[in-house]
Design a protein that fits this description.
The chain has helices at residues 5-12, 14-21, 24-31, 36-60, 73-82, 92-106, 112-139, 157-169, 176-197, 225-241, 243-267, 272-288, 293-307, 313-326, 329-340, 348-360, 366-374, 382-398; strands at 90-91, 205-206. It is built from 18 helices and 2 strands. The protein is globular, with a radius of gyration of 24 Å. It has 2 domains: 5-211, Heme Oxygenase, Chain A (Up-down Bundle), CATH 1.20.910.10; 219-400, no CATH class. Helix 2 (14-21) packs parallel to helix 9 (176-197). It binds protoporphyrin IX containing FE.
Length: 400
């Protein structure tokens, strides 16, 4: 019989699968005694794993392996949003295990064989998922709900699995050793997550930022529910102030806005110098990803408004002052007003002028990122693109 990648993966991971079926979490699920807290943390952990794996597969672009239609993260996040889990804390060791697995997957970006092994495990889990879905729905307190995460699509679980196996089996057989190692590591990571979820103690409960954004990692998050609420409201204000964010970064961008807002709120207790150091770092990170500093400044203002205390006022002034060294504020205002008429959408004039100033102030790569998006011919007319170039020339002429 000819060896196939999927067949060999099945053989090699038989023990690992059995171990996954034998965890206390699986037993409690089957008995109908798994607490909602455990079910929620398990699904949130899986969201971390899916987020990292699906993005890695997308970026790796291995011919024939990944199809964005296979992504299960959106369904999982919808289920979590719809099951009354919002605000529920997480079980620390479970989330730590999921992040550890996510970190390991991140190292696989240049290893197609390993990504294939990991995809095998998560896609294959949809088969058992046909049994688990009712158990999870019951554990979440909604036994009549059909969880989207376990719904394979119109083709059904069997047909979908055949198609995924064909994708795996079209890969070179030399991938096998690495694919097996990665598949086993994925099973082990998910098993650790399950062990972390059940049983658990109340002492291990904490608000984790990954509940808001599975890709946010380990960063700080307020533990007080009112503070979280204010941080999320500020994020919402910042998000709505800039339609550019939605247009460019979509749902993933919104999740980052929520988690960044919680991180920003957690900075409020630091000394002013430390606040500024952290914000300068974040401003640099955001700028090269295409988010000029005005976006961060408005977000900080929204946080101060929500919390009713101007904790960030000095930092906002410092960020502006740094920009003003290369582009005096009066010039920035004049240029923005001048180009706004020809660039009326997405706050383009403001963002483009700020991006040029950020770049001149040392945030390398900002202009490239913002300019590329705002001159994409699929999105903008030739007239618009010409206006962006005009704005660039005029602004550069006054930059110091
Ligand atoms: C109580 C827990 C579980 C049960 C009852 C269960 C059950 C099943 C069942 C019935 C199948 C179909 C086997 C077949 O058609 O031959 C299957 C396949 C599979 N399951 Fe699970 N499963 C569980 C947990 C997991 C977990 C946690 C994972 C990994 C995240 C997983 C990954 C897989 C994979 C990769 C396959 C495909 C095997 C293959 O045919 O190559 N399962 N599972």
């Amino acid at each position: 019989m000819t060896t196939t990648l999927s067949g060999a993966l099945r053989e090699a991971t038989r023990d690992a699968h059995e171990a996954a079926e034998r965890t206390p979490l699986s037993a409690a699920l089957a008995e109908g005694t798994l607490p909602k807290q455990s079910a929620v943390s398990y699904l949130r952990g899986l969201a971390i794993v899916h987020a990292v794996l699906e993005r890695s597969l997308e970026l790796a672009a291995i011919p024939g392996l990944w199809d964005p239609a296979l992504a299960r993260l959106p369904a999982l996040l919808d289920d979590l949003a719809g099951c009354g889990a919002t605000g529920l804390p997480d079980i620390d060791p479970a989330i730590d295990a999921a992040i550890a697995l996510g970190d390991a997957i991140l190292l696989d970006t240049d290893h197609p064989a390993r990504l294939a092994g990991r995809l095998y495990v998560l896609e294959g889990s949809l088969l058992g998922g046909q049994i688990l879905k009712g158990w999870f729905a019951a554990a979440l307190g909604a036994p009549d709900t059909t969880l989207a995460y376990f719904t394979p699509g119109p083709e059904g679980a069997g047909r979908r699995w055949q198609q995924v196996k064909q994708r795996l089996d079209a890969l070179p057989l030399e991938y096998l050793p690495e694919a097996i190692a990665a598949a086993k590591a994925t099973f082990a990571g998910i098993e650790q997550m399950a062990i972390g979820c059940f049983p658990y103690t109340d002492a291990s409960l904490r608000q984790r930022v990954t509940a808001l954004n599975p890709e946010a990692g380990r960063h700080a998050m307020p533990q007080d529910a009112r503070e979280v609420d204010m941080a999320l409201r500020a994020a919402d204000v910042a998000w709505r102030q800039h339609p550019y964010l939605e247009a460019r970064y979509g749902a993933r961008g919104r999740r980052f806005t929520l988690s960044d807002s919680c991180w920003l709120a957690s900075l409020r207790s630091l000394a002013p110098d430390d606040i500024l150091t952290n914000l300068r770092w974040l401003a640099g990170v955001l700028a090269v990803r295409g988010l000029p500093t005005t976006i961060l400044e408005r977000h900080l203002q929204a946080l101060d408004d929500q919390f009713g205390l101007p904790v960030f006022a000095a930092a906002i002034a410092a960020l502006r002052a740094r920009r003003a060294l290369v582009l005096p504020e009066a010039d920035a205002v004049r240029l923005t007003a001048h180009w706004q008429e020809r660039l009326p959408d997405y706050d383009a004039a403001d963002l483009l002028v700020t991006a040029l100033a950020d770049e001149a102030a040392g945030a390398d790569g900002t202009w490239d990122s913002v300019h590329t998006w705002f001159t994409d011919p699929v999105r903008f007319s030739g007239e618009w693109v010409a206006a962006v170039d005009g704005l660039m020339r005029e602004t550069r002429a006054v930059l110091r």
